[in-house]
Specification:
With about 290 residues, the chain is mostly helical. About 65% of the residues lie in helices and about 5% in strands. It has eleven helices and three strands. It has helices at about 10-20, 20-55, 70-85, 85-100, 100-105, 105-110, 120-150, 160-165, 170-190, 195-215, 260-289, and strands spanning about 220-225, 235-245, 245-255. The protein has a three-stranded antiparallel sheet with strand order 1-3-2, with no helix packed on it. β2 (about 235-245) and β3 (about 245-255) form a beta hairpin. α4 (about 85-100) runs parallel beside α9 (about 170-190) and α9 (about 170-190) packs antiparallel against α10.
Amino acid sequence: MSAPRATAPDRLPRTVLRLHRAALIAWGAFVAGVAAWLVWLNEITVDGVRTALAGCSRGPGFCVDFLEALDYSEPTGYAGTLVRYSFLGVAAFAGGALIGRELESGTARLAWTQGVTPTRWLAAKLAVPAVVLVLGGSALVLVFRWGWAANRDLMGDNWAFADVFVARGPATVAYALCALAVGTLTALLLGRALPALAVSVAATGLLSLVLEHGRDALWPAVTRTSPTPFELPGDAWQLARGRTGTGHYATYHPASHFWPLHLVETGIVLAVAVLATAAAFAVLRRRTA
C-alpha cells in the first residue's frame, strides 16, 4: 500500500526552503566566507606578520613598518564586525522577502486557502529560518572565538570592544533571532516589503546601539581604591578613574565579567525576540479574523 501524499502543512518547511533558497545560499556563503577568511588569517597571513615583526626586533636596518601587523589584526577585527552586524541582513530579509513581500503580493492569502492556516504558515516561516540562523550563527561564533584567541599578542582589541564582545558568544545568535522576529512583526504591521525592511533594520540597529551604550551597567562593576597610584590589569575594561581626598580609585570590569555581561545582554535580546514573536502571532490573528 502506497504512503499517503503529504498534506500542505506537511510540506510547509520544504516550501519555505524552496521559496527562499537564494537567501539560504547567501547565508551559507556568508558563514563559509567569514570562516575561510579567519582560517586564512590564522594559518597563512600570521606567519608573514610574525616574520616582519621579528625583523623589527633585529634593529632599524631590518625594521619593517609596524603597520604590517595590521595585515592580521585589522582583518580579524573586520571579521568580528561582520559577525556582529549580520543580524541587520536578517532583519532586512525577514521584513522584506520572508513576510513583507508575500503579504504585499497576496501570496500569503493564497497559501491560506490551500489548507494551511495562517498560524501554521507563520510558524513555518519563523521556525525554518530560525533553525538555519542558529546553526550558522553558532558556527560563526565558534570560528571567531578560535580566530580571535589564536594570536592574541597581535590583536589590539580586548574582550570589551563592541564587535568582539558580541561576536564571541551567543549574543550573535540572539540578535539574529531577534531580527527575525522584529522583521516579521514589522512586516505584519505594515504589510509592505520595502517599508518593513527599512523599519526592521532601523529598529534592530537601535536596539543594538542602546544595549551597547548601557552594556557596562548590565553587571556590577568593581571599584578599587588605593592611597597610591596603581595599574589595572591589561585586559580590564576601565569605566572611571580619578583621585579622592585620600588616594586613587578606578571602576572597571575585569575580564572575568565577560560572561555575566554577555549572558545578561543575550537574555535581554532573547526576551525582545519572544515578545516580538508573540506580538506577530497576535497581529496575524487580528488580520485574519
